[in-house]
Structure formats: C-alpha cells, structure tokens
Amino acid sequence: MTKRRDLSPALLAWVKSAEWRALSRAQARKNLAAWKAAPRCGAHARSTGEPCQKPAKTGSTRCRIHGAATPKGFGKGTGWHIPTPAITAPKTERKIRDRIRAAEKKARRLAKMSSEELDAHKRWQITHKPGSAEARERARAERKQNAELRDMMAEPRPAPTGQAADIESQLKALRAELQQRRKDDDKPIGAFA
Q1: Which of 63, 86, 144, 164 gets the most CB atoms within 10 Å of its CB?
Q2: What are 71-126's pLDDT values in tens digits?
Q3: H/E element holding 31?
Q4: What DSSP designation does 69 have?
Q5: 3-state DSSP call for residue 55?
Q6: Is the pTM of this model over 0.90?
Q7: What percent helix, strand, coil does the chain show, rounded to 5?
C-alpha cells in the first residue's frame, strides 16, 4: 500500500479533499448495503443453534467457513478425495483409524446383503460414476450434444442456394479483389479505392 508521504502533492490534495471523502463514503455505504443484502449462510451453530450471519459465497448456500471453500468434483486437480497426512502424528493416526472403521462398516454392510442385493449393488457401482445425479445427467447431455455435433460436421456441406449463393459469389469476388490489391500495396483497399 502506498503511504501518504509517497503521494504526489496533487494526489495528496485530492485524497484530503471533501469530494474524495464524499466519494469514498458513498462507496463504503454501497459496499455495506451489498453485504447486508447478500444471502446468508444456512449453517447453524452447535452451541447456540442460531444460523450463521456471514454472507454465503456466490453459487453456494454456505460461507467459506462452513463449506463453500471445499473443492468440488472428482477430477485430477481437486485431490480432495485423497487422504493426506496431518500435521501431527495423533491426528494422522485418527484419520487412518477413521478410514479403517469406514471400510470395516462397508464390508459388514456388504456381508449382510443377499446375492441378489450384492449383484444389484455391483451393477449400480459400475453404472454410476461419482457425483450427483444432476452432474451425471449434465455429462450425458453434453456427450449427446457432442455426438450430434460430430455427426453434423461429418455431413457434406450442401451447396448454397438463392440468396446464400449470391453472397458466396460476392465473397469470392471480394477475396479475389483483395488478393489482387495485396499485390499492389500502393493502391488503397475497400472504401478508400
């Protein structure tokens, strides 16, 4: 940040002027009004049960403290699903114990399933990628659109008819004229001819 003594005299005079103070006061009021009007975080405090008063992050229903800063997705770049060692040994051990406990719980749940339920579970695991149903539906729609676009691009382009043919012929004539004019740099191009 630039200190006031480093400012030029003209800029220092502007910063000290009543007009500048009025502008900065108006901007501060505008920022405060936007902050007050922003949707609030939907998280509740365990201690009081009161909702969080911080503004929710754009595109989320939570503030960054209550989960809006959590990376989304399952791509390579997120790394959120990959366990990482903690700063202290006890915390790392607790993380490992939690993962082992979750794996054992899943194994017990699978062991209780009948063969039909287990087959249905395996089929579901194969057909459903990680993520929400909405994300999977969006990916399906995008794949369908991409396939349609590839098919459309593979089809031969129909010959222009009517007005399109006239425009094509005009474009061809203008391109030929442009090539001819580029040979002579002295001649003006287009409207300057």
Answers
A1: 63
A2: 665 555 556 666 677 788 888 889 889 999 999 999 999 999 999 999 999 888 88
A3: helix 18-37
A4: T
A5: strand
A6: no
A7: 60, 0, 35
